[in-house]
Amino acid sequence: MAQCVQSVLEFIQDSFVPMVAVLSSKEADRLTRKNNLNFSELLRPFCRLTSEGHIRDPNNQLQTVKNLRICVNNVVTTPTPSSAALSPAQYRQLGEVVLSCQPLEGALATAMRTGDYNLSLSVTTPWFETYRENFLQLMPASEHEFLNHYLACLLVVSSTEAVPVEQFLKLSQEQHRIQHSGEYTNPKWFIPNTLKYYVLLHDVSEGDDQRAETVYEDMKQRYGPQGCYLLKVNSRSSSAGEEEQIPDPWSQYLHKNNLRNQDVLDLTPAAAENSVDATEVDDGYSEERDGAVEAGSPDTHPLQLDADSSSASLRTLNDVSMDLKKGPRDPDSAAGGGGGGGGGGHGACLTLNDHDHIRQFIQEFTFRGLLPHIEKNIRQLNDQLVSRKGLSRSLFTATKKWFGGGKAPEKSISEPKSTCGLLYPPEAPELQIRKMADLCFLVQHYELAYSCYHTAKKDFLSDQAMLYAAGALEMAAVSAFLQGGAPRPYPAHYMDTAIQTYRDVCRNMVLAERCALLSAEILKSQAKYSEAATLLIKMTSEDSDLRSALLLEQAGHCFINMRSPMVRKFAFHMILAGHRFSKAGQRKHALRCYTQAMQVYKDRGWSLAEDHINFTIGRQSFTLGQQDTAVAAFKQILVNDSRQLATQQVAFLREYLYVHKCVLEDDEAGLPQLPLPFIHSSATRVYFGHERRLAEGEKQAATHVSLDQEYDPDLSAMWCHLEEQLVASANRGLVPVNFQPTQCCLNSQTDNLRPPLAVVEEPIIVEVTFRNPLKVPLALSDLSLLWGFTPADGLPGEPGEPGAGQEAAPSQVGTLHRGNVLPEPECSRRVVFSVCLMLQVLQDDDAVTTEIITEFHLGPEETKMARLKLLPHRTGQLNIEGVVYSLASSGEMSSSSEGQQPADLLVRGRQDLKIQGPRLNLTKEDKMLVRHGTDRRLEPVVTPPMPLMEVFFLQFPTALLCGEIRKAYVEFCNVSGVALRGLRVASTHPDFFTFGNSASTPSTSPPASPESCSAYQTLASPFRPGAAAAEALVSAGDFSQPSGVMQIPVEAGALQPGDSIQLPLWLRGPDQEGVHEISFLFYYESAEKGLKLSHRVLRHTVFICASRSLSVQASTCRSTAPPPHGSPEDRGSGGTLVFIDVENVNTSEGGVREFHIVQVSSSSQHWRLHKYINPDKDKDCKLSSRERTKLCFKAARCKPPPAPSDATHKYTFADLNLGNERIISSSTPCGDFFFRCCRTPEGQQAEPTSSRQSSGGKSQMFAPAQNRTADITSIAKKCNEFDLNIIVIWKAYVVEDNKQLILEGQLHVALQTIGKEASSLTPKEEAQEMMLLKFKSDLPPTVVAPFPELSQLIKTNLHYPETFQHRFTQDSLCLVPVTLTLSNCSLAQIDVIVDLRHKSTSSDSLDVHGSFAWVGQSQHKLQLPPQQVCSVTLRACFCRPGVYNLNTPRVFAKPAEQSAMCESSQQTASPALIIITNA
């Protein structure tokens, strides 16, 4: 239970006090009425004694009476209902008392933390204490107990009476008649000999003091000095001025009790006959009090939500809510009528001395009259019972014999067989014991009282007088608890038995409730909260909603005050209490209970309970006029992910819309924040620019960027890299420091640290993601963006920051509809004033046009995007604040559209777009705290007009053969009002396309049919076998662009507004089959300088499916044949041969019949194809599927260029056509694709030059050995380098739609090393084989001879006659001249040693050459310059005829100026056989 102001001892003592009746004369009433009081009310504030009293028990032991309070009431003879139930008026009074006692606004609540719950609770419940006090005072007197029976009667007569003694006699006779005549059942008297105390009331202001004293002396003679008293009051006249402020101690007592007295006095027999059952009265009271119709019956479950009645409930409640504000019954208004006087305060004629007189009177009456009277009766009862104690088995039976004559107790006529209806006669000994116990209890003699109660209890139980037994059990338990220092524990089972007997056997809920209140308070004082809660819960029933609500609330407080607080049980019982409060008409208390329970259920996953609580809070708050609380509660229902049924959610939505509509009618200040639909602010995307145009006929528009595309970080990085290339190309190879990549579409993954840039007259599209969390559809209407705009002239500083000397903000907020600015209603006065200023500025030149979506429907639990547009017309700072729309359920919208009923539940509101930036995770503080960066995607800066280009593609293919050349066209259109220039393009596949070189002339219109033209430039040239190749010298700068960025040729360097240009575009199929994604990024600038937006880009992505065509494999080797004399082109080249294998690897895809090889070309700075040496005269060079052909060409070195400085930039193109026309390979597009596919980096070309220069330098002698080794290896490698690029041009014949098309293409093969094969196809990566686990170490590697590459430095040829005749008969020695030709294949000077001595020991060599000898010089030493040929004349001597192998000379070579350690023997060629015959 909650904490109470009184302790449990004070509460019990104040609950059972001696009752004193008052009978006063009319004149006495007149005197007290001057103070707006009657006599009993006059005494009430002073009825608690400030000093201790004493009595002596039957054993003559002195007992102290502390803090005694008496209860003084007027004698009322009106019959009252039975004690089983309270009257309707009493129920009404209890309801009024609870209603008038509300928690103070702003009262401090106690913060409580238990587990992971943080609760804010009210510790005290004064409404419960007030209810409990009034309930105990309203309890009617019962026959089975005497605690609330009158012990004494005060007879009050005024001193102004003519004969006061006669008035006392009349009053005494009246009291006797009331008590003993039997005409009245009420009031009830404790004992037959009631104490009569005579009070002479003297008005000091108007009475005669001497006469009063005389009368009083006479009274003392008649009634004794202890039986009368002279009370002097009204020392101040009512007409006296307010000289001093006299306190008013009566207000707090009269506020609690006036209604009770008034209702009891006004209750007539007719009203009693018309009274209804307590339950009906309770429900009827709630309806009358609040004027509201509660949905549900008394059996309604508190967690049940009635969807059928909820739709119209708030409208009904709203209609009667004004009645609550006008005239609720205020108990304070009737408080002053208790004394029968008019308005004004109480005790106006009383002074502080009069207060002391009254206080002294009460003390005198109690100590000299009441306590002695009680002591006397206790002794008499005890003496009567003790004197008969030994005559029977017990005190009870003895008293029964003497007092009752041994007769059985009488039964009630109405209930002859009911044990609860058993009645004892007044003189029954059991009742005498009960009287003695009650007297002891009233004077705080609890030990004797317990003994008497315990004795009486046994006899009541033996007689089956259950009502009497229950009363004895109840008071025995209370007496046992109140015994000071007694070892006897509190017998809680006595209380449980008493409550059960009252409730189940006697059907007396009033007594059961009193018993439960007492027991619960006792258990609480002993910290037995669980037992107290169980007891309170048992007392809840359907006969009284108010009682059940109060007890359930106290049970909840018991759960929260336990040693281990049971928080969820507390919340659950608070909900039950709130439900019963609501049924009892106590809406404020119901709202408070639900609000406290909400602290426990909120955000804990109890969604259904949370919905119920919010729904009830919303309805109660709306009825009580707390509109903001109602809106917040209904909003919480809709915001959470509800698990309610669709019908219930419809009811929730309608309630919310109706509440909002009522709030807006009362408050016209602004648009509310709507909770539905839910907006994913972080998913908001912003697109700048016009939406993508679709294809127009044969034209295919550039894909660019659209909101339909998903964001890919890898693609974004790729586009950023391409844009960096373009920007660097436009800025002399440097990327500006302030470069920011273009972002046309902003989302949560893009870089939003800086405000984006928008362009005047280009739309801004904001994609807002809406989610409907409900299972019912939603209808939004008039949906648009809410924005603020600041013109550029108001921004002298950075965007979004006020300039110097200007005020920071106000931001003009408004929505512009068709050129009209509608100011946002909910702005402050300052902002609204700014909007008005903005309206005046924008009347001539509108700033922003807003697009409005008329209808926007969301299905149940649907997530849907809405694209809202803004069109800025002026430069400045634009801030997109949120969205504004009208919300309704789909049912309301449809019904209104059909004309059935108006859409009265249509609410206009807004939602703000609050975007949170990414979480910061850079510093230690960022990692420890949750910090987010800025996100400014909704704060665009509107810049001046910029050019806008659109790109269209014509005849652009989707499928190509590998290496196929196709001609397409691209059209550039300037659709803006600003000229553009600096048109460039970059691509992820720069080898896929070309616009041609600067010398090519673009055609203005595409041809009618693609099969009627060729992509190449051709010349008529019939095929001539053995003819030399046609050569052309081309500069690489005419084709290649080192940065990979291609400048697009535009006439006059700029494209004017509205103009368009069409350029040819050559495409080449990728060398690798499959689907290829190729991206283009077009770059252009404005013709004006100094704009904030420096350039713009346009994206385009295509997908090309490449199919296999031909496979080309090429290799080269040096010819062993001696070069013909006088051939300068073969000098130093040694007769190099190039072999080309071409295979048709096409699988007949696309209807390709056959391929024709029409031309083989070469391009290089050092080599060229010279002749086609194996022409097939009888057969055309065509390949069907899976056919292969082999071509052989002779290569020669290029002629030296005329200017040595251009050697690294000039390429020699050599064409060998195999048909009747020659394709100019050095022109577009053949040359373009060659330089894009096979170009050699300039850094690699400069490397051999530096190595050649260093190899011959004198400083080489002093280089370290490591450097010399590297030079030797480099020289050897350069010896085998062969820089020659082969271009194989083919044609394919395809049948498509019964038409024969001719496809053209070219394949490239780069030959780099002699003896190494190269291919046009990229080798596929093979899966790496699994390595076996080895347990033994590998064998040591084979020792390789040093510098094996040196064996390729020198090429040797022996020139001799194949057959030589000699007459051995004439001359025994045959001398044959042999010429040894030495060719230096390297680029370095070589020292050569020719050794003619035989050292071969091979048996094969002996068999072949037998015995012959070289005559003359046996060793030749010579030095060969780079790429030079030298001949050495030798003579071989033979002794007899035969076949001899002349290839026995050993040749050693080493680079010049190297040590002998680097000398290495040359590899021998094939055997050189000579036949010697005898002539």
Describe the structure using short key phrases:
single chain; 1479 residues; alpha+beta; eight-stranded mixed β-sheet; 34 helices; 58 strands; 31% helix; 25% strand
Question: How would you describe the overall organization of this protein?
Answer:
This protein is an alpha+beta fold and 1479 residues long. Helix content is 31%, strand content 25%. The strands form twelve sheets. Strands 12, 25, 27, 29, 31, 34, 39, 41, 43, 45 and 46 form an eleven-stranded antiparallel beta sheet that branches. α16 (446-462) runs antiparallel to α17 (466-482), α22 packs antiparallel against α23 and α23 (587-601) packs antiparallel against α24. It is elongated and about 200 Å long. About 15% of the residues have low confidence.
List the helices and strands and how they pair.
Elements (H helix, E strand, L loop, with lengths): L7 H8 L3 E6 L1 H8 L5 H5 L9 E4 L5 E4 L5 E4 L13 H13 L9 E5 L2 E5 L4 H13 L11 E9 L5 H17 L14 E9 L5 H15 L4 E6 L17 H16 L2 H5 L4 H13 L16 H20 L4 H5 L16 H35 L8 H10 L24 H14 L3 H17 L3 H17 L9 H14 L3 H17 L3 H10 L6 H16 L6 H17 L3 H15 L5 H17 L3 H13 L6 H21 L11 E2 L5 E4 L11 E2 L11 H18 L14 E2 L10 E3 L4 E8 L6 E14 L21 E5 L2 E4 L5 H13 L6 E3 L2 E6 L4 E10 L3 E14 H9 L8 E6 L11 H5 L12 E3 L5 E6 L4 E3 L2 E11 L5 E8 L5 E2 L23 E3 L9 E6 L10 E2 L6 E2 L4 E9 L5 E13 L8 E13 L2 E9 L17 E9 L7 E13 L2 E6 L9 E2 L4 E10 L12 E8 L3 E3 L6 H9 L3 H14 L9 H16 E16 L2 E15 L4 E2 ...
Parallel strand pairs: 1-4, 1-7, 7-8, 8-9, 14-24, 26-36, 49-58
Antiparallel strand pairs: 2-3, 5-6, 10-15, 11-13, 11-15, 12-25, 15-21, 16-17, 16-20, 16-22, 17-18, 19-21, 22-23, 22-24, 25-27, 27-34, 27-46, 28-32, 28-33, 28-35, 29-34, 30-44, 31-43, 35-36, 37-38, 37-47, 38-42, 39-41, 39-43, 39-45, 40-42, 45-46, 48-50, 50-54, 51-53, 51-56, 52-54, 55-58, 56-57
